[in-house]
Amino acid sequence: MINDILNTFSISEQNPGASDGVQFISTSGAGINSWSPVDGHKIAGVQTVTKAEYDQVITKAQAAFRYWRTVPAPARGEIVRQIGEALRVHKDALGKLVSYEMGKSLQEGRGEVQEMIDICDFAVGLSRQLYGLTMHSERPAHRMYEQWHPLGIVGIISAFNFPVAVWSWNAMIALVCGDVCVWKPSEKTPLSALACFRILTEVFNKNQLPEGLCSLVQGGKDLGEWMAEDPRVALVSATGSTRMGKAVNITVAARLGKCLLELGGNNAIIVSGDADLDMTLMGVVFGAVGTAGQRCTTTRRLIIHESVFGQLTEKLKNAYAQLRIGDPLDARNHVGPLIDKDAVAQYLQALDAIQNEGGTFIVEGGVLEGAEYASGCYVKPCIAVVENHFAIVQTETFAPILYVMQYRDMEEAIAMQNDVPQGLSSAIMTLNLREAELFLSVAGSDCGIANVNIGTSGAEIGGAFGGEKETGGGRESGSDAWKAYMRRQTNTINYGKELPLAQGIAFNI
Ligand code: NAD
């Protein structure tokens, strides 16, 4: 199956590490191999880019920008529309490759490609908007308005867990805004990125677009650092760990560049005494074990009212006992593998830390063994009773570990929910209007995403996505997130015969 998919995308054993959007450039950096966490097999390798090759790509991107910014935005939208159509054609194959290379379920792999299609549709509509405001000038016969111009090169650094969607959230919006993009995908998922570029190349060539409009460069942390340091990259949009975001932020700030950061989360659901517990169960289990706990919006903490704590934890134990762990390409399984053995080691360290800090397990964790789990990356989703202040609870562990704790009153629950360094996603399960509104109020959740009677994961592209505090403060995708990809210009036009100064200042010559 996977060989057919690799053939579809012309992926061979060793692949070039860069594309300027219309051709794949021969590259000479050291290689990266992509290993599937599903079965532990090496899928294929890519060559990374050297600094000189990276510079070549950036030079092409600069030239492409001079052309692309002059193309009318709706015409840019037409190209994005065609990319969306091409993704529809390849949805199944790309979804399978994502699932095999990253380890998420096939449903989620396909869902990720659907998200790419959705953002293309959104961006096409946006290409006829991108509007600024008109203001009233204080001076007679003057008109004042603002307009939005493209920024230039957008450097996209992405994480392994959404190997294709995060790129499209950035790139499709950036393209309609008139920017050009250079993408450095995660070194753990280089082939999914390559497949996206095979699809993109077809569209670009059909439309005889110039090189450099959207480029792909493969490499590790060093390559990300080159982008962060590079003053030619007008905006660095980086998705990944808080550790990475802090490093990128410091480097970009030192050159007064622009940064858009989408970093780690530590997401909680408050379960009120007035919650619908069946609905809660569904939201919590999918939120905690979906993508094997490797979503930035994964439900990590459950803050449960003391009146329903026993009842809900019993339901959770029963639900966890029914979870099927195994090959994510088999639709009967609920939970696939972690990305690699390093992630498994971090999961095991977290289990130790929970115990050392005094936590107890109501569903035990552990690494699965046997032929079906030969990659060594399959772990058991677990549930631990903890206190919110434990150092391990304050940290994002990218694995299916769910922390449960109790509360007495809603103010206390909200304080616990907010009392972590991260601020991405949050939710409350309640049928009580007062509780729901308090949670959404200024005295409520401090996160970028706050939901009622929905879990923490599974955002739609129509809203702005991102979070506060150590999550980085960036917003991507829908609403007016496009403004981060453009620069605002205020224009004042005098159509009169006098030159009055603002604030009534008299200046006679
Ligand atoms: P990571 O930080 O290890 O790597 C992310 C990317 O950053 C990779 O491409 C990597 O090569 C690059 N990188 C690493 N160090 C760098 C540096 N110093 N300078 C420049 N680039 C650097 O993250 P990961 O393990 O791939 O992904 C998991 C993390 O991503 C989790 O913390 C998760 O919450 C977060 N994430 C956040 C969002 C969001 O939208 N908020 C979405 C997906 C993932």
UniProtKB/TrEMBL annotation:
Its EC number is 1.2.1.3. Residues 29-490 form the Aldehyde dehydrogenase domain. Keywords: NAD, Oxidoreductase. It comes from the Bacteria. The keyword NAD applies. The active site is at E262. Pfam families: Aldedh. InterPro entries: Ald_DH/histidinol_DH, Ald_DH_C, Ald_DH_CS_GLU, Ald_DH_N, Aldehyde_DH_dom, ALDH7A1-like. The keyword Oxidoreductase applies. CDD domains: ALDH_F7_AASADH. PANTHER family: ALPHA-AMINOADIPIC SEMIALDEHYDE DEHYDROGENASE (PTHR43521). Belongs to the aldehyde dehydrogenase family. Homotetramer. This is aldehyde dehydrogenase (NAD(+)).
